[in-house]
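Translate sequence into structure tokens.
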Amino acid sequence: MTHLDHTSQGERILLAALRISIGWVFLWASIHHYGSTGYVAGFLSSTKTFNFIYGPLSQSSLIPVIAFLVEYGHMLIGLSLISGLLVRASAPFAIFIMLTYWTAHLDFPYVQSINNVLIDEHLIYAMLLVLLIMRRAGHYFGLDAVVSRLSVFEHNPALRWIA
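Result follows.
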């Protein structure tokens, strides 16, 4: 009996809904800022606590590359989470992005405003993504359930973990 066999139908639905919801957050971020390098530069230049890291990037000639990576990274993560395909492969990148955004918004000890002391939605999203990895959320109404049955995934321990 696998871990998946012990999950109730309600929990499966909730995990799928959470996975799809956070996937939409990433996909919408990609759509909303599509083609805008100014958004990335403006965001990086407005950092506070870690401005010594992010500030120089805002003036860098790498801004078009960074903007491309942010834009398409958000899109691929969003599509992965929404479809439930390779969730365990995309979620660590999503966690990295959320932790990066958290540090970028940090004006120690506040995050974005005085209403958030050390914790904001970026940390909550990161923790949710860890849960999605741990619970193999791509298997619940997602394509990971299909992909995991392919022989290439069944016979390769490294790939078996991903799906």
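Note: The chain has a mean pLDDT of 91.
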